[in-house]
Design brief:
The protein is of the alpha/beta class. It is built from nine helices and seven strands.
Length: 206
């Protein structure tokens, strides 16, 4: 929800805090609207507790039984989101505030595995790890532990860092594809990246 709020957070603010339950109500409405519009996959990225089970229940009740749920199950409170937040304007909105109350601590691997297990139990078909490169160990552990389709998101900061280094001549252009290989090797079944178009062209030319 962060691109649509004036405070830049991923949910509804009540008494200066993100209200998990009130946010889930909106996420359910949003998911049903998307399913009715024809979306094959719903991918909540907010990290609210219990939202996968509630969305799954609402989809089933509305006869969207085949709609796939891709849960951002391990979304870390990372500094690598900076360019995206600047692009959508949430960086200035959120100011010095933090998303640490609902996004994961970058220090805690077990929390990620716990959250993934809960989301699978609630009905997730696919799980997402975000960011990707700083969390290759998380991608590997999730795939190894649960054998569920595991996606990884190479976020704006990862891409921008490598792209700038390539543009400046500090690194060879092949470093972008190398970064994708590292994510795939860690266990990702699919990778979301701002480099997708150029990477696909590079692969075709090999």
């Amino acid at each position: 929800l962060d691109p649509y709020t004036d405070h830049g957070h991923d949910g509804i603010i009540v008494n200066d805090e993100v209200d998990n339950d009130e946010t889930n109500k909106l996420l359910i409405e949003q998911s049903l609207i998307l399913a009715e519009a024809g979306a094959d996959i719903i991918a909540p990225s907010d990290m609210m507790d219990g939202r996968i089970g509630l969305i799954r229940e609402a989809l089933e009740a509305s006869d969207f039984k085949n709609t796939i749920l891709l849960s951002y199950a391990a979304k870390f409170n990372s500094k690598f989101y900076g360019p995206f937040r600047d692009a959508v304007g949430s960086s200035s909105s959120i100011g010095k505030s933090s998303k640490s109350s609902y996004q994961m601590s970058l220090r805690n691997k077990q929390e990620a595995l716990h959250e993934v297990a809960m989301d699978i139990n609630e009905g997730a078909d696919i799980v997402m790890v975000k960011p990707a490169m700083p969390y290759l160990d998380i991608i590997h552990s999730i795939k190894d532990s649960f054998q569920i389709p595991t996606f990884a998101y190479q976020v704006s900061g990862e891409y921008s860092m490598l792209k700038l280094a390539i543009t400046k001549g500090w690194l060879d252009s092949g470093v972008m594809l190398e970064s994708i290989f590292s994510i795939k090797r860690a266990g990702a079944d699919a990778i979301l990246s701002y480099a997708s178009k150029e990477i696909s062209q590079e692969i075709q030319n090999k």
